[in-house]
Amino acid sequence: MREKEKEKELILEGKHALQIQAKKQRALRVTARAFHEPAFRYLGETLLIWDLRAYMSNAKWRDDAIRKSRRYVESQLYLQSYPKSFKRKQFDMDVPPHETTGGRKKKFKRVMDQLYRKSLK
User: Fold this and answer.
1) In Å, what is the CA distance from 3 to each residue of 7, 17, 18, 89?
2) What Rg do the C-alpha atoms of the chain give, in angstroms?
3) What is the dihedral of CA 63, 66, 72, 73, to 10 degrees?
4) How far is 50 from 67, CA to CA, in rounded Å?
5) Would you list the domain boundaries of the chain?
């Protein structure tokens, strides 16, 4: 009985553990009109600004993004912007495509073979 009475008093005073936790959670929420974007949603401790799944599920947006990305990578602007280390791997034309995959041993043998061939020239 005493425990129930104490719990009732805590609830009436607003000091119950669940009430304190709820108050903290309410304090974290995004207030109305804090952002101009109506699609912002509060999810726990994160704010969802842009959903990749929703974007990629729209075929028109996805195809447009892929097309623009390919065009950018092939443009001169991309070549000027990024250093050579960021560019796609340039595969050696002497190596057939089926030999480019494999483990470390195959790669080591392939590199040693290329270096040997260069030294003979």
Assistant:
1) 6, 14, 16, 70
2) 30
3) -150
4) 20
5) 2-49, 89-121
Determine phi and psi for 46, rounding to 5 degrees. Answer: -120, 160
Secondary structure (3-state) at 98: helix
* Distance (Å) of CA 64 to CA 55, 57, 60, 67, 70: 11, 13, 6, 5, 10
Measured between alpha carbons, how far is 16 from 111 in angstroms, rounded to an integer?
Answer: 70
The one-character DSSP state at 45 is: T
User: Are the CB atoms for 16 and 7 separated by under 8 Å?
Assistant: yes
Q: Let me know the angle formed at the C-alpha of 41 by 38 and 44, rounded to the nearest 5 degrees.
A: 165
- The per-residue pLDDT string of the chain (121 residues; one tens digit each, 9 = 90 and over) reads 899 899 888 888 888 999 999 888 888 777 766 766 666 666 566 666 778 888 889 999 989 988 888 887 777 676 666 666 655 555 444 555 555 566 788 888 888 888 888 888 7
**DSSP character at residue 41:** E
